[in-house]
Design goal:
The strands form 3 sheets. The protein has an 8-stranded parallel beta sheet. A 5-stranded mixed beta sheet has the order 1-6-2-4-5, with no helix packed on it. The protein has a 4-stranded mixed beta sheet with strand order 3-7-16-17, with no helix packed on it. It has helices at residues 97-104, 109-114, 119-128, 131-146, 163-179, 202-219, 237-249, 266-272, 286-295, 303-308, 317-323, 343-354, 358-364, 367-372, 399-402, and strands spanning 2-3, 20-24, 27-28, 45-49, 52-57, 70-73, 78-81, 83-85, 150-156, 183-191, 225-230, 255-258, 277-280, 298-301, 327-329, 389-392, 409-413. The radius of gyration is 21 Å and the shape is globular. The chain is 35% helix and 18% strand. The protein has 418 residues and is α/β, with parallel strands linked by helices. The longest helix is centred in the middle third of the chain and has 18 residues, at 202-219.
Length: 418
């Protein structure tokens, strides 16, 4: 039976996982590495078997075991893996629109931070927010990403900077994953900034607040990875290393915000810990690139912050490309330096601002974004992997990075469910 487009996902009146579904007459961009551009090899059919991909190939070669499965005509549309936003700060209180005005009037990010603004401004609003308020405000931001085909999103703590609020943020992030059909991956970012109650004692904060909060959050099952901001306005490589040592004791992978405003060697240090990723990287040098390449770490490119802060130092895309360092792209959605709620716009920015190719931008929000989160079951379309798909009303994948302010999503499929 072939269902018309307007009946997709209407079984039992809502989206539901079907036992076996054949999607045919489409352009299947598998995003498999080392093959044809976008992993397109002439396949026009994809079979979903429950929540997994069962088969991909030409419709004429459809195996007999799938011949009785329900069929959906894609109408020539393009299918990609569901998108992955691998770096966000979706859970927070308040906004920083006033600081946006200050920056436009000449104040720098560092000046605002040192005057009690920036991250510390959001700290005050987040500490004051109730658990329900944190969830409710974040749902709006999460829904915007889901509407653009996102099936997996990483969410960080880091705006509480005390024991209770850091855990409250992580609980809110977990709650978001229960309220929406999306996979939420959490990162503990207690080493995000030095709170005013610990002014002048960064070492004390790391040892007596950050690390104990990390251990408590891990004991509660709230942490998938550990992050830190290694920068002059945040924490030194030695201080971050102590957090990473604690993460190692807990069996948790690490990642880092590094080389955004200066070069402290944070990416190189994180690579020595086998970091999943190093993010921002505008001031990354050749030694840092080589260290990431040796470690197999992903470089996460965040054009939203570059754009919002009106930076002029671009990340070394050519150097990363030559060294074979996989590059992911993410929104960095946050209330201050990247109030960006569109992963599609992040793709366009990666192409226009940093000269990433359209294929690199799509790999950056699929295959490489999955790698940046340590996820092996998604980001590529292949038999046995999760049936997390995005079906687009486009004829070629490059359109996703080409258009500005336009969302061509036709259907998002999460775990085989329309």
């Amino acid at each position: 039976m072939i269902r018309p487009y307007n009946e997709w996902g209407k079984r039992n009146g809502k989206g539901s996982t079907l036992a076996q579904v054949v999607l045919f007459n489409g352009l299947i961009a598998t995003m498999a590495e080392g093959r044809t551009p976008y992993g397109i090899s002439g396949a026009d059919t994809l079979v979903m078997d429950g929540d997994s991909i069962g088969w991909i190939g030409a419709f004429a070669d459809l195996p007999a075991r799938w011949s009785a499965a329900e069929r959906h005509d894609l109408g020539g549309r393009c299918v990609t893996p569901a998108l992955i936003d691998c770096h966000t700060h979706l859970v927070h209180g308040g906004d920083r629109a006033a600081e946006f005005e200050l920056r436009l009037n000449g104040a720098s990010y560092e000046e605002i931070a040192r005057q009690g603004g920036g991250i510390l401004s959001t700290l005050r609003d987040t500490r004051a927010a109730s658990p329900q308020a944190l969830v409710d405000s974040a749902l709006t931001r999460l829904d915007a990403l889901i509407a653009e085909g996102v099936g997996t999103v990483e969410i960080k703590s880091g705006y509480g900077l005390d024991h209770d609020t850091e855990l409250r943020m992580l609980r809110a992030a977990r709650d978001l994953g229960r309220r929406r059909r999306v996979q939420v991956v959490t990162s503990f970012l207690g080493a995000h900034a030095l709170p005013p109650d610990w002014a002048g004692d960064a070492d004390g904060y790391i040892d007596r607040v950050c690390i104990p909060a990390l251990r408590a959050a891990a004991a509660e099952g709230l942490v998938d990875a550990v992050d830190a901001f290694c920068e002059g306005i945040a924490f030194s490589p030695d201080q971050v290393a102590r957090v990473f040592d604690a993460a190692g004791d807990l069996g948790l992978p690490v990642k880092i915000h590094a080389e955004q405003l200066s070069n402290l060697g944070g990416a190189r240090m994180a690579a020595s810990y086998g970091a999943l990723s190093a993010d921002h990287l505008e001031y990354l040098d050749a030694d840092g690139i080589a260290a990431l390449a040796r470690a197999g770490s992903v470089a996460v490119i965040l054009p939203g912050a570059f754009y919002t802060l009106r930076e002029t130092q671009s990340p070394p895309i050519d150097g990363l490309r030559r060294a074979g360092v996989p590059m992911a792209l993410a929104s960095d959605a946050n209330p201050g330096s990247s109030p960006l709620g569109s992963i599609l716009l992040a793709m366009n920015m990666g192409a226009t601002l940093f000269r990433m190719t359209p294929e690199e931008t799509l790999a950056g929000v699929t295959r490489n974004a999955a790698r940046a989160l340590g996820l092996r079951d998604r980001g590529v379309l292949a038999p046995g992997l999760r049936a997390d798909l995005a079906i687009w009303d486009i004829r070629r994948p490059a359109e996703l990075a080409y258009r500005i302010g336009f969302n061509p999503l036709y259907r998002r499929v999460f775990g085989g469910a329309f």
